[in-house]
Amino acid sequence: MTEALPTTSVTYDVAGEGLNASLHQVVLCVVAEDPPYAEWFGDRTDLALSMEDQHVLDAVTHKGVPVVVVQLAGRPLLARDDWAGTDALLHAWLPGSEGGYGIVDVLLGRVAPVGRMPVGLPRDLPVAEATREMFARGRGLSYEEEDVLCGASVLQPFL
Fold first, then answer.
1. CA-wise closest residue to 114 among 106, 122, 126, 124
2. Cβ atoms 153, 147 nearer than 8 A
3. Sign (positive or negative) of CA dihedral 92, 132, 80, 125
4. I need a labelling partner for 120 at 20 to 30 A (CA). Which of 48, 60, 72, 138 fits?
């Protein structure tokens, strides 16, 4: 981010506790599963964000400063019921070693993201029985297209 915006002051706070609404224009909160992985060695039964990430989100939301969350994970994680306290959510999956540049380009509006949700982000467990989705499969960019599931033209909000 500092490379893309060299004249902008960036404050790093691992706990999110130093937020001062009069000094900060936006909060960029990056949360990740630990370790960010998708198969076998990374298998886990708990798909919730870590308590540490939840505490950081609690510390920065509802403070009068826009909050943009970038979530890094190789699988859909449980969505928080209070995502409404954030202004934007970008699920970047596993972006790879050069993915940070692409994420910054999206965040700064240099490029429009071109993806849609391949799977839904569940609200609760067990995932196989989860009937409530926070963000349904197919959610994505703001454009109209034929909804494959119900055959209707729908507006897909950006996620």
1. 106
2. yes
3. negative
4. 60
Which amino acid, one-letter code, is at 95?
A: P
Split into its structural domains, the chain has a count of 1
User: At which residue do the structure tokens 């964000």 appear?
Assistant: 49
Question: Which structural domain range is residue 109 located in?
Answer: 27-119
pLDDT per position as a tens digit, 49-91: 888 888 999 999 988 999 999 989 887 777 666 676 788 888 8
Enter the pTM of the model. Answer: 0.74
Task: State the Rg of the chain over Cα.
Answer: 16
Q: Are 51 and 68 in contact (CB under 8 A)?
A: no
Residue 91, beta-bridge partner list: 71
Residue with tokens 């970038």: 70
